[in-house]
Amino acid sequence: MVNAILIHRFSDNSLRKVKTDKADAMKIANYALAYWSDLRDYSETDETRQLLKVQCRLYERTIKTAKSLRNSLISILDQTFSGANNFFPTSYRNAKGHYKWVDFVRRFWHKDNVAAVSIQSFSESFRKWCKRTGYHYSQADAERIHQHARESVATFKKNDSTKPSEAGLCLRGGARERAQFPAEGFGFCRKRSRADFATTWVLDRLQNRR
Question: Which end of the chain is less crowded, N or C, counting CB atoms within 10 A of the terminal residue's CB?
Fold first, then answer.
């Protein structure tokens, strides 16, 4: 495997810059003939290394995007349900790898969703939500969240404009699934990006080598 820049600069002694498939093929062939003794044989290990490098870059960009989206969600919650992102540790996840606090604010996205009802009503709603989403229910957590909602102040009113979109709110764990959540995002609904398809392709290639 040869760096494309080396081939591009090889025998570049012409004033005319011809850019055609035929000219590129001739340049690559001449480079191979000139440096035949220095070229290494093709190895699947080199291709695997390149695939891993691509996957690493995509994974790092995925983590960066997830962090940005998470901060955007917290910024909105500061105006509607301050402190909701601290109700549960970030290690609390369900079987699908979802963060508990993210799924919680999908259902109880405004303080009035909690403070406007009695502790008994909220506890029952919270218990059903935990059962439906696969989280552990705790009466102490229900009382603590209800008390916090009663004491907190929201600067944004409860309406459709401040409600997070159902298309988003999906922070997940796992290397294979992580390449997918930037496209889902917090409150953003769009098609999968080229990076998502590239990541899937890289993973499939690596999987086929096992």
Answer: C
